[in-house]
Amino acid sequence: MDAQGGSFSSPELTATDTVVEKVLYEQPLNEKVRSFLRLEFLFQLAEHTMAGKSEWDRRQTLANFIDILNLLGRGDVRGEMTKELGHYSTQLGTLRHREDLDQQRLAATKQKVDAAVMRLNAYTGQPGHQLRDHELIHSIRQRSSITGGTCVFDIPQLHLWLQQPVEAQQADLRQWFSTFDVLREGLNLYLKILRESAIPKAEQSQRGVFHLTFNLQRAPKMVQVYLPSHLNIYPEISGGRHRLSIRFMHQAEWDKRPSQVLEDVDFELACFSF
């Protein structure tokens, strides 16, 4: 299952006992989680392209690094992540006397969270700050705002780097990517706990529209919507602390505008508010 959205095999069976393929859609409900999910997407993309063997994989990996630096430059992501994990630690501590919970697993999770908080607190500056002063990456970053601005004649030193042995380039990329490790590990832990804090429940829209009002004391930070892939339906999701709205759209042909579904739609919804 892809963290950002993808297909997976649901245990639900049809009348012919075949597994129903479903598509997962995730929607953040606040700006903080929105930034975290975008970072996760960029980290995953960089990990994938970094393993590639072609020049284009390495170019894309460098472009991903620059996107990560740009996103981190918009705020104190390390501070926000430290705060959120600290909140998790406090919440986990309040559950240590619950007899209905696996206390051993709870203690192990809290230990991981506390360790991540310590690493984030001990880190000086914003993760990845070393790459801001890196000559090659700085040159690429300066030219990346220009359409096609990383051609051979634009950045000859990049062209020279791309002629080095593939193993040497991949070693460089892994070293540069490691400057994000403290934040990436904290982010993965945060999102893992958040995604495990609720399970999907069956819901039904009314004529293609679904509304839900939240309890302000337990307002979700993120929601997931699961839909059967064969329906060619996707959700347009909007929401915040008070309310969630979903409008289901039917995509009959890829070169045509989608239309709103006018029938009731059965789907699954998970609301994450840990």
Verbal overview:
This protein is an alpha+beta fold. It has 2 domains: 5-31 and 200-272, YacF-like domains (YacF-like), CATH 2.60.440; 35-192, YacF-like. The protein has 9 helices and 9 strands. The strands form 2 sheets. It has a 5-stranded antiparallel sheet with strand order 1-2-5-9-3. Strands 4, 6, 7 and 8 form a 4-stranded antiparallel sheet that branches. Helix 1 (31-50) packs antiparallel against helix 2 (55-72), helix 1 crosses helix 9 (181-195) and helix 2 (55-72) packs parallel to helix 8 (166-177).
Order of helices and strands: EEHHHHHHHHHEEEEEEE
Radius of gyration: 22 Å
Which whole number gives the mean pLDDT? Answer: 89
Q: Based on helices, strands and strand pairing, what is the structural class? A: alpha+beta
CATH topology of the largest domain: the name is YacF-like
Uncertain stretches of 5 or more adjacent residues? 1-5, 7-17
Output the strand order for the largest sheet.
1-2-5-9-3
What's the architecture of the largest domain in CATH terms? Orthogonal Bundle
Global morphology: globular
Major beta-sheet overview: 5 strands, antiparallel
Q: How many beta strands in the DSSP annotation?
A: 9
User: Could you say how many structural domains there are in total?
Assistant: 2
CATH class group of the largest domain: Mainly Alpha
Number of helices: 9
* Percent range of helical residues: 40-55%
Strand content bin: 15-25%
Ends distance: 21 Å
